[in-house]
């Protein structure tokens, strides 16, 4: 693994601990994983070609979570993959078809490493492989179970405010509308390597505070939503030459953090389940201003989540 990948990932992760915990991370970029002791594998995903592990750095009692993800191929580097430096080991031969294990040059085989340190129990839980369950959340269940849970936990989003106030990551901003009511900041998601345009992934984070999720949106927010759709798409077209017709623009519900944000993803990228397209959200609110205050919403939660336990105790799972 290239050291620069680990360095970039560690620096990037300084701004976001799971659920916004404001714990100090590694103060210096890592040069290698020397001194790291593996405790256990948290999750292995063959589809995403990723591996999440738990361990500790030498001389520290704090836990660390390391996320390892295979980097996508680049068409510009194709000649470096199929070259004399790539060794082959045959695994199957049938008529004109041959299957091989290919060992490409090490510099072409980078792995993205994200280091979360110190890692809390919430981080460990998040990245541990778990069973998932589908929740059908009515307006009443939101009011009686989900909302009290969110208000009790009050997960910090200080890292979001750091971005909005340009205390952190200002160099990564692609576009900003500074209006306090309808404005937002657009910047690349950490999942995007900014090399492969087919995996393009950005987030628009609104300047207005107090909007946790889709459930809070109503007719007063239509100017904000339309602004994100129009100017976010235009900025991506100008910066990356990707038109709106090539973009999936959506909300997650439940969101990963409780400050309104919109995802912009290339249509060739893998889409995520239980998402809500921004154009649909706008139309729904145009039809009924309080649409998301009464709409039944369906999403998945994991068995180790506190919210799962609350739905289970209320006999709704």
Automatic annotation (TrEMBL):
Decapping scavenger enzyme that catalyzes the cleavage of a residual cap structure following the degradation of mRNAs by the 3'->5' exosome-mediated mRNA decay pathway. Gene3D superfamilies: HIT-like, Scavenger mRNA decapping enzyme, N-terminal domain. It comes from the Eukaryota. Keywords: Acetylation, Cytoplasm, Hydrolase, mRNA processing, mRNA splicing, Nucleus, Phosphoprotein. This is m7GpppX diphosphatase. Belongs to the HIT family. Substrate binds at residues 159, 169, 189, 191, 252-263. GO terms for molecular function: 5'-(N(7)-methyl 5'-triphosphoguanosine)-[mRNA] diphosphatase activity; RNA 7-methylguanosine cap binding. GO terms for cellular component: cytoplasm; nucleus. The active site is at residue 261. Coiled coil: none annotated. Its EC number is 3.6.1.59. It comes from Sinanodonta woodiana. Homodimer. Associates with components of the exosome multienzyme ribonuclease complex, such as EXOSC3 and EXOSC4. Interacts with NDOR1. It is found in: Cytoplasm; Nucleus. The keyword Cytoplasm applies. GO terms for biological process: deadenylation-dependent decapping of nuclear-transcribed mRNA; mRNA processing; RNA splicing. It catalyses: a 5'-end (N(7)-methyl 5'-triphosphoguanosine)-ribonucleoside in mRNA + H2O = N(7)-methyl-GMP + a 5'-end diphospho-ribonucleoside in mRNA + 2 H(+). Its main location: cytoplasm.
């Amino acid at each position: 693994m290239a050291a620069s990948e680990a360095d970039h990932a560690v620096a990037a992760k300084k701004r976001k601990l799971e659920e916004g915990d404001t714990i100090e991370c590694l103060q210096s970029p890592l040069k290698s994983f020397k001194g790291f002791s593996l405790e256990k594998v948290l999750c292995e995903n063959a589809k995403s070609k990723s591996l999440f592990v738990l361990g500790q750095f030498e001389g520290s009692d704090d836990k660390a979570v390391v996320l390892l993800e295979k980097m996508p191929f680049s068409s510009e580097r194709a000649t470096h993959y199929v070259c004399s430096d790539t060794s082959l080991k045959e695994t199957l031969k049938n008529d004109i078809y041959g299957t091989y294990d290919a060992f490409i040059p090490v510099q072409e085989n980078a792995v993205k490493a994200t280091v979360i340190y110190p890692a809390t129990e919430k981080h460990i839980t998040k990245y541990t492989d778990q069973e998932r369950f589908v929740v059908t959340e009515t307006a009443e269940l939101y009011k009686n179970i989900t909302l009290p849970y969110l208000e009790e936990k009050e997960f910090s989003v200080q890292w979001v405010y750091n971005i909005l106030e340009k205390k952190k990551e200002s160099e990564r901003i692609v576009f900003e509308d500074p209006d306090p009511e309808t404005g937002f900041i657009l910047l690349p998601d950490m999942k995007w390597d900014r090399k492969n345009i087919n995996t393009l992934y950005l987030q628009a984070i609104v300047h207005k505070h107090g909007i946790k999720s889709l459930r809070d949106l109503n007719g007063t927010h239509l100017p904000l939503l339309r602004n994100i759709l129009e100017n976010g798409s235009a900025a991506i077209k100008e910066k990356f030459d990707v038109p709106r017709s090539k973009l999936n623009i959506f909300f997650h519900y439940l969101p990963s953090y409780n400050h309104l944000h919109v995802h912009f993803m290339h249509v060739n990228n893998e889409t995520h389940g239980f998402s809500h397209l921004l154009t649909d959200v706008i139309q729904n609110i145009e039809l009924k201003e309080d649409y998301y205050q009464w709409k039944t919403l369906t999403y998945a939660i994991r068995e180790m989540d506190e919210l799962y336990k609350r739905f289970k105790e209320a006999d709704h799972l």
